[in-house]
Amino acid sequence: MLRWALLFFIISIVAGLLGFTGISQATAGIARILFFIAIVIFLIFVVLAITAGSAIL
């Protein structure tokens, strides 16, 4: 998911440099949403790993 966020971010930068501001804003928004979803999933997995690790011990 972070790979997709990075891809949309790069598309946003290129579109902004070429003057396509609407496309640049849209792809930047998509990249931001994907980044936050990836962070939330990461945090969920960290909490699950901590609880599973403490259950084993």
Would you give an account of this structure?
With 57 residues, this protein is mostly helical. The protein has one domain (2-56). The protein contains 2 helices and no strands. The relative contact order is 0.15. The model has no long low-confidence stretch (mean pLDDT 90).
Approximate helicity band: over 70%
Beta-strand content: under 5%
The average pLDDT value, as a whole number, equals 90
Helical region count? 2
Biggest sheet overview: none
Low-confidence stretches: none
Q: Which structural category fits the helices and strands?
A: mainly alpha
Number of domains: 1
Question: Could you state the order of secondary-structure elements as H and E?
Answer: HH
Q: Secondary structure elements and their pairing?
A:
Blueprint: H1 2-18, H2 21-56
Helix pairs in contact: 1-2
What tags apply to this protein structure?
57 residues; 0% strand
Please sum up the structure shown.
Helix content is 93%, strand content 0%. The model has no long low-confidence stretch (mean pLDDT 90).
